[in-house]
Write a structure and sequence with these properties.
By secondary structure, this protein is α+β, with helices and mostly antiparallel strands. It has helices spanning 17-25, 50-62; strands at residues 2-10, 30-36, 42-48, 69-77, 86-88.
Length: 90
Amino acid sequence: MTGRHVFFEGRVQGVGFRWTVKNLARGYDVTGWVKNLPDGRVEMQASGDGDEVDAFIEAIEESELKSHIKKVDVSVMAPPAKFRGFEILQ
């Protein structure tokens, strides 16, 4: 079990980014959350098997959101408290 803390930059708010990420998470064995930040970025934490989490992040980067993402900053972290499913935080 591993965690990834991710920041997405670009035109990532107001384009259905969080909703799309949540829907993509359904296809992977990951838990966590995604939320908008006041500075225009989107923050995400995802936990699961390392390969599964990495495949999930890659799927986000290759999805229809691709044209909106200018920069992705991923760091490895200890898995956060257990989440049930994948949530959109306010």
